[in-house]
Every structure is written in structure tokens, then in C-alpha cells.
Amino acid sequence: MAIIRSFFILLLPVLLLCSGCGVYSFTGASIEGKTINIHTFENRARNVVPTLSPSLTTKIRSRILSQTGLTPLSTDKADYDLTGTITGYEVTVSGVTNTQQASQNRLTISVAVVFKNKLNEKGDFSQTFTRFEDFPANQTVQAVEAALIEKIGNQLADDIFNKAFVNW
After folding, report:
1. In the prediction, which pLDDT does 94 show?
2. Rounded CA gap, 152 and 109, in Å?
3. What's the confidence (pLDDT) of residue 168?
4. Cβ(85)–Cβ(126) under 8 Å?
5. Distance CA 20, CA 16 (A)
6. What total of structural domains would you count in the chain?
7. Does residue 76 lie within any of the structural domains?
8. CB of 50 closer than 8 Å to CB of 89
9. Does the reported pTM lie above 0.70?
């Protein structure tokens, strides 16, 4: 028992040092820089929902800033630069009954993201992220849209954060 206690006493300062130095965080993120410029995601989807761009941008910004401790900048002098475009917002049928009627619909949102790591070009990427959620066909998309955008937005924010900062 004394050995275990000694181990944790020695481990605690190391963990605190590592979490505060900006190299590693408890989320698994590898952060080299101190600043980031997160641009507003432009909505170029065929079906435009006016609240989607600000909602998605806010989710991604909040996820990155809360998990990294980076300082947001609105200039090209930031260590990281994140731009994105909403390229898809579609409602499709995802399930049918025996009588060939829709039983489930699916909302799919796609975003094209360009991430530039000005401290290490190997961290740069350009990728499209797509997520979806199903909802009952007896509900209109307008009735469930806010909740679906919330869920999908969280998933997309996680995907983008993980691609940009988590090296698993």
C-alpha cells in the first residue's frame, strides 16, 4: 500500500506538469501552438438552414477552445487556421415498412474542412466530414431539426477536433 501511495505522489506532479505545458492534455490532444483562427463556416449546401452556419461554427469553436486552451485570433498570424464550408444538408428516406412506406428519415450534414498547422505542415489536412441522424417518418424535419442539428453538430465538432489535435 505504501508503494502505491508513493507512486501516486510521484506521478501527480508529472501529470500536472504535462497538462500545463501545452504539449499534452488529458483529452489526448497534442497542442504545439498557442493561437487559432476559426473562421465562420460558410453554408453552401443546396438546402440552406439559416441557423446552421452559426450553430455549427459555435459548436466547433467551443469544442476546440474548451479542450485545448488555445487563444482565438482573427488574423493570419495564428498558429492554427481552420476554415470550413457546409456542403451538404439533406433529408432522405432511411427505412421503409412492409407496405413500402417510409418509416425512418435521415438528416445528413457534410462539412468540408481545411486545417493548417503553421508550426508543423504534417498536421495540415483537407477533409469532408459527414454525420447523420435518423428520425421517425411521421415527424416533419422542421419539428426535429433543432435537436438533430444539435446532435450532428456535436458529432462533427468531435470529428474535426480529433482529426486536428488528437494523434491516436
Report:
1. 84
2. 7
3. 55
4. no
5. 6
6. 1
7. yes
8. no
9. yes
Q: CB neighbours of 23 closer than 8 A, spacing ≥ 6?
A: 30, 31, 32
The residue segments making up the domain with residue 156 are 34-165
Which residues are CB-neighbours of 2 under 8 A, at least 6 positions away? none
C-alpha cell at 153: 453538430
Nearby residues of 165 by Cβ (< 8 Å), 6 or more positions away: 27, 29, 30, 31, 64, 67, 68
Consecutive 10-residue runs of the chain (168 residues): their mean pLDDT?
52 44 51 94 94 96 95 94 98 79 90 96 96 94 95 97 86
> Cα(first)–Cα(last) distance of the chain, in Å?
33
Read off the C-alpha cell for 43.
453554408
CB 105 within 8 A of CB 132: no
Residue 38 belongs to domain with CATH number: 3.30.160.150
The C-alpha atoms of residue 74 and residue 43 are separated, in whole angstroms, by: 20
Contacts of 158 (CB under 8 A, 6+ apart): 63
pLDDT at 8 (0 to 100): 46
Tell me the C-alpha distance between 64 and 157, whole Å: 8
| Cβ–Cβ under 8 Å, residues 132 and 90 | no
